[in-house]
Amino acid sequence: ERKVRRFRVLVNMARAGSEPQLLFKRLQRVTDRFLDVVLDYAGEIPDDEGVARAVRARRSVLAASPGAPAARAYRQLAAAVQDWPAPGEGASGIQFFIEGMPARPPARLQVVK
Question: What span, in angstroms and rounded, lies between the C-alpha atoms of 102 and 81?
């Protein structure tokens, strides 16, 4: 529908070892066979108890467990994203992602005396 032909794939909750790469390769074989798209491996976020602790604390993993493997992976991903080329006008990229998100109602402020 949007004529997007290139995607970056991030493997979330990845187990240690070669599993994330194997998962990506399997997905790539399927898309190569059935779809006219190109997949690029963007990286992985490891399955990490630090994430579970952060969720329970209602904080980001970067704030709750900054030394956790997942926090390190998020920092590496953020650094890599800065070097990615800017997407074409309206074709893909963050604006494409944000369009699919539900609208958030504006915050209401109330003065309490």
Answer: 24
